[in-house]
Amino acid sequence: MRSPHAVLDPSAVPTPIMHGMAGALANTLSIAILYPLDQIRTLQQAASSAPSRSGTSSLQLLSPKNIPLLYQGIGSSVEALLVSYFVFFFTFAYFRRLRLRVSGKGKPSPADNLISSMAAGVINVLVTSPLWVYATNKRLGLANRGDSFPSFLMRTEKWSDLWKGTAASLWLVSNPVVHFVVYESGRLALLSREPARRRGFSGVEDGRPVEEVRVLTDRQAVVLGGVAKFCATMATYPLQLVQTILRAQGSSQASLSTLGCLLAVYRRSGVFGCYAGLQAKLTQTVLNAMLMSVLYERILKLVHHNSLVFSAALKKYRSKLAE
């Protein structure tokens, strides 16, 4: 058993780039699998600004004739997701590690997770907003069928249009903040209670045992991920609806402010209108959070293990060359 006063070997801790890779791959795979549910949510949110389409239900959209519509824009959405989640997970892990280095603490507190999540969320919004405007218009069929992201940029008359909905997106930073504070705090609490027998060793490097990176079980990751995402979604859903409307270039409310758009939807459809598409969103979000959490833990462990193996092989090769 490792001494409680022993210093954790740096190689036993996944780096920000590992967190970035694991987060990007896990979220992209999960969203791609559940894409039809997310597309239903997007269509119903956009329809909240067009009364003639407001009666479309999830069951109607799930009919076989709508299969092409349910996968419309999946390529651009996956591209945006891959970039967005990599930026978020990388910056989240980087800022958290930076705070720990400055504070000298051994493990992150909920406050560390909160600050790191907010910083990562703001950077992610500002960097990836043009990608999401493009993806939203591809989803809703408002962009030309053959449009690539560069050609979409060239056709955009005002570059400021590429950051439409940024105010709503910045407010939506609270969504991953709530999710990651709940998830990471719960994760650390669960891992701190793990029995010593589950804290095995992944091998020996330079004559020292290297501790295996600890991860949640599939059941723990599923439950914790689902609960965290459910809470975050309920708190921020009206802002997600406004974000979709503002990003859609063909929307009649695309020129409104975040608050103006939200008030317009409220006047038109009441409180329920502010939660258009919530059923599909909740189903997709909770399933995605559960699936993503499992994939994230598995991919992070795989990436970390392969990194250790590669590092050991490289050192062995260099030592042979030095002989």
From TrEMBL:
Classification of source organism: Eukaryota, Sar, Alveolata, Perkinsozoa, Perkinsea
Superkingdom in the source lineage: Eukaryota
InterPro entries: MCP_dom_sf, MCP_transmembrane, Mito/Peroxisomal_Carrier
Segments annotated as Solcar repeats: 14-98, 216-302
GO molecular function: ADP transmembrane transporter activity; AMP transmembrane transporter activity; ATP transmembrane transporter activity; coenzyme A transmembrane transporter activity; FAD transmembrane transporter activity; FMN transmembrane transporter activity; NAD transmembrane transporter activity
Pfam families, per the entry: Mito_carr (PF00153)
Record's subcellular location: Peroxisome membrane
Record-linked PANTHER family: PEROXISOMAL MEMBRANE PROTEIN PMP34, PEROXISOMAL MEMBRANE PROTEIN PMP34-RELATED
SUPFAM superfamilies named in the record: Mitochondrial carrier
Species, as recorded: Perkinsus olseni (Perkinsus atlanticus)
A GO-annotated cellular component: peroxisomal membrane
This protein's UniProt keywords: Membrane, Peroxisome, Repeat, Transmembrane, Transmembrane helix, Transport
Location (main, coarse): membrane
Membrane topology value: Multi-pass membrane protein
Transmembrane portions of the chain: 17-37, 69-95, 115-135
Assigned protein family: Belongs to the mitochondrial carrier (TC 2.A.29) family.
Protein name (Swiss-Prot/TrEMBL): Peroxisomal membrane protein 34
